[in-house]
C-alpha cells in the first residue's frame, strides 16, 4: 500500500506515506528508517536546521551529560566507527556537527521542510489519513504521522509582574541567539538553577561584570569531570561497540554505569563515604546509583544527599551562601541530577551573588532589573534558565485532532494517557517517539529513540504487508498501561519532589509522573513481546 512516490521532495502540499514532525535525533532516524523501507516520507522542522534540542540550546556551556560515545546512533556501524568524539561529555556544537553529518551522510535534508512549524493535524476518519497544516499555509496528507517533537522542546518563561517593562536584553537558554551573547561589562541575572542554569552560570560568571543567580530550589550538582578523550580510548570503545550497545539496550537507563556497591543502609558509614567519594571523584550521573537502595529508600537517599551537602559546605567559602545552595526537602535524584563543572566554586567569585528567592521572592521586574522582597537587583540582561513544559508541551503546541474531532489537549486534560508512551487511543496511526509513559527522559534518550523508531517503523511495515490501513491503541490497553506507569512511580521516591517529571513546574498541569520508570531493558522486551503477539493492545482496520 504505497500512497505516493513523489519526486518533488521539497514541496509539501502533497501526500506521503508518513509525515515526521521534528528533525532532531528522533526525526532524523525515523526519516532515514522509513525511506530505507521504501516509504514516501516528509519531515517538518520549525528550526532552520537539523538538531532539535541541540539546534536550539546553544547557551554557553551546553553539553550532554551522557558519555559521547554512548550518546550517538548505533544503527550504522560505519557511522559509529568513523565519527570522532573529542571529549568524555560532548559539547552542544559537537553534537550538532554530528547530527549535521548524519543528515548529510544519509541525504536527509532533501526530505525536510525547514523553518516550517506544524500548527495542526486532523485525522480524516473517512479516508484514514492525517491532514497536517503548517505555518506557511500549506497542508500535507499522510497515512501515518510520527511525532518526533522532543520531550524537552517547549521552553517556558514563567509569568512575573512587570516583565515587559524590563529595559535590558532577555534570553531563554533554549532559544539562544545564533550569533551568541556578549556578557562583557554586563550585569546579568540568571533565573533558574536546573541543568541548563548549572552549565551556563560558571561561564557567564567568567565573562560578565556581575552575575546574580536567582535560585528557587537548589539542585544536587555532581561534578562532571569532563576531559578530552584520547584517540586510544575512543578506539577501544569503538572496538567494543557490539557488546557495549547490547549492554546499553539491556540496561535500566540506556547507559553503562558501574554496578551499585550494595545497599547504603547495609554499609558502614566509612564504606558509604568511601563509595560516595569514589563516585564523586569519577563524576557524572553514576553518583545516583552508588547504592542500590538510593532511589527507593528515603533514609538511604539521605546519606547520599548529606554527602553532597558536605561537599557544598567544603567548597563554598561563605557559610550563608553554602547553606542556601544545599538542597533540602526532596530526595537526591528525584529532580534530575545536575552535572556541572566548577558550579559551586563559582559562588566564591567576587562578581557572583546568590539570591534565594524562597527567602526573598521575586516581586516584580522593572525597567532596571529584578525587585525581590528585599531589594532591587539592577541588571542589563536577564537569562531565563527556567526549563520546559516537559513531554506534553510540544504536542500541546499543535492542534492535534483525532477521532470525533477530539483534541489531544482535551483528551489529556487530566494528564497524558498513552499506550507504551508511543500511541494514544482515539488518535489512529499517530506515533509519538519517547512520549509520556515511555522511559524517555529517564534514559539515555538516544537509546530510547532508536528503540521507539525501530518499533514504530516495523509496525508501519507490518501494516503495509498485511494490508491494514489504520491502527489504534485500545482504551483498555491504554488504561492498563497508565496504571502500570503510575503504579511503579508510586513505589519510588520520585513522587516526593516538585519536579518537571511530575509536571510540577507548570502552573495547573496535572500532577502525574510522566516517564516510565520500569527501565529501558524491560520496556524493550515488553514492546517486542507486544509486537510478537500481533501488536496486542492495538486494533487495526483495512
Ligand atoms: O530546566 P529545569 P533546565 N522563579 O526545569 C527554576 C535536560 N538538560 O532547562 O526547581 C524562580 O530543570 C526552577 O526552580 P524549581 C535535563 O533533563 C540536560 O535546567 O522549579 N525560579 C529550576 O531551578 C534537565 O533536567 C542537560 O523551584 C524558577 C529552573 O528554573 C532538563 O533538560 C542540560 C521559576 C528550571 O530547571 C531541564 O533542564 C540541560 C520561577 N518562577 C538540560 N520557574 C544535560 O545533558 C522555574 N524556575 C547536562
* Oligomer designation: single chain
Query: What small molecules does this complex bind?
Result: 3-acetylpyridine adenine dinucleotide
Helical proportion, percent range: 25-40%
DSSP strand tally: 20
Strand content: 15-25%
- CATH homology-level superfamily of the domain at 14-154 and 390-541: FAD/NAD(P)-binding domain
Structural summary, described in words:
The structure is a single chain. The chain has 542 residues and is of the alpha/beta class. The protein has a domain at 14-154 and 390-541: FAD/NAD(P)-binding domain (3-Layer(bba) Sandwich). It has 16 helices and 20 strands. It has helices at 25-36, 53-56, 77-82, 92-105, 195-207, 231-239, 241-250, 269-282, 298-315, 319-325, 343-346, 393-396, 408-411, 445-466, 475-490, 520-532, and strands at residues 15-21, 41-44, 112-113, 118-124, 129-134, 139-147, 169-172, 187-191, 210-215, 221-223, 338-340, 352-356, 362-366, 369-372, 376-378, 381-384, 399-401, 430-432, 470-473, 538-541. The strands form five sheets. Strands 1, 2, 3, 4, 5, 6, 17 and 18 form an eight-stranded mixed beta sheet that branches. Strand 8, helix 5 (195-207) and strand 9 form a beta-alpha-beta unit. Helix 1 runs parallel beside helix 14 (445-466), helix 9 (298-315) packs antiparallel against helix 10 (319-325) and helix 14 runs parallel beside helix 16. The protein binds 3-acetylpyridine adenine dinucleotide. 3-acetylpyridine adenine dinucleotide (N01) binds at residues 64-65, 152, 158, 173, 191-197, 199, 214, 216-217, 336, 339, 357, 385-388, 441, 500, 505. Residues 64-65, 152, 158, 173, 191-197, 199, 214, 216-217, 336, 339, 357, 385-388, 441, 500, 505 line the site of 3-acetylpyridine adenine dinucleotide.
